[in-house]
Amino acid sequence: MGSKSVEDMIEASSGVHFSGFHMEGFVPRNIEKLTTSRGGDSVHKQPFVIGVAGGAASGKTTVCDMIIQQLHDQRVVLVNQDSFYHNLTEEELARVHEYNFDHPDAFDTEKLLDSMENLRHDRAVDIPNYDFRSYKNNVFAARRVNPSDVIILEGILIFHDPRVRELMNMKIFVDTDADVRLARRIRRDTVEKGRDIGAVLDQYSKFVKPAFDDFILPTKKYADIIIPRGGDNHVAIDLIVQHIRTKLGQHELCKIYPNLYVIQSTFQIRGMHTLIRDSQTTKHDFVFYADRLIRLVVEHGLGHLPFTEKQVITPTGSVYTG
């Protein structure tokens, strides 16, 4: 390998490296990059984005509220996709009952992306306050949303556009029975929006259900977590909040140390961690499992080193490329 040591090669190829186990007193050489002014593109400005999707009246807002309530030690903001409906033209207003509010084209996705990018880069944004009676987003004053540690993006079609999906660190799909969603929608639209029950049912059969089957349900496959029964599933939400806290802990470390990679936890890794921390574990087993953990760390670390493909011909004439 020449006169350079392994440590020198690693240092030259990718800057500061460390295991993450002993960081006391450690100051990264590139700390200047991590303390840029507001509005900069530094790594530590990136928030943790959680997407919550599901059918209309599935309980998405309830799930978001419960998550926000339990994440009381974090700065959390909620962004609703409903805020980004297009303003209806005069012609569309004249035939509003024929307008499909559950179609992807009903939303101003470009404006949503622009708002999310601003929040992710530590810039406050004004979120429209859509009026469902006049079908306009300029009737009420916009809502000022400041950058936060956690952004929850909620909406029926937030998983539909791949550009929006790419912004998310975690994707949650709220899965609620169709009959329950219909009952909730009737109650909400008649009481809160002052609509006629006949018009609500007509809109549901013409647009809501077909759009759910065509556009919303297929995005369920992109979800990292699926919550049956929505806000009524307290056990699932508690587990999700615990998972978010764990992810946030890893996310905070990765924001502070840009070249830190967290190895995904598996049952095998957790089992070996349990064994080496057990005071009853024998010296032989401790060395054995500690060695296996170290091997996994080294293998994962090598995967992040720069490389070039090489072709090798074995003595038997076989050709390997890698």
Short structural summary:
The chain is α/β, with parallel strands linked by helices. The chain has ten helices and nine strands.
How would you characterize this protein structure?
It is an enzyme of class 2 (transferase). This is Uridine kinase. GO terms for molecular function: ATP binding; GTP binding; uridine kinase activity. By secondary structure, the chain is α/β, with parallel strands linked by helices. It folds into two domains: 207 residues, 3-Layer(aba) Sandwich (Rossmann fold), CATH 3.40.50; 60 residues, no CATH class. Helix content is 40%, strand content 12%. The protein is built from ten helices and nine strands. The protein has a five-stranded parallel sheet, covered by helices on one side. Strands 3-4 form a two-stranded antiparallel sheet. Helix 2 packs across helix 8, helix 6 crosses helix 7 and helix 9 packs across helix 10. The protein starts with 5 loop residues before the first helix and ends with a strand.
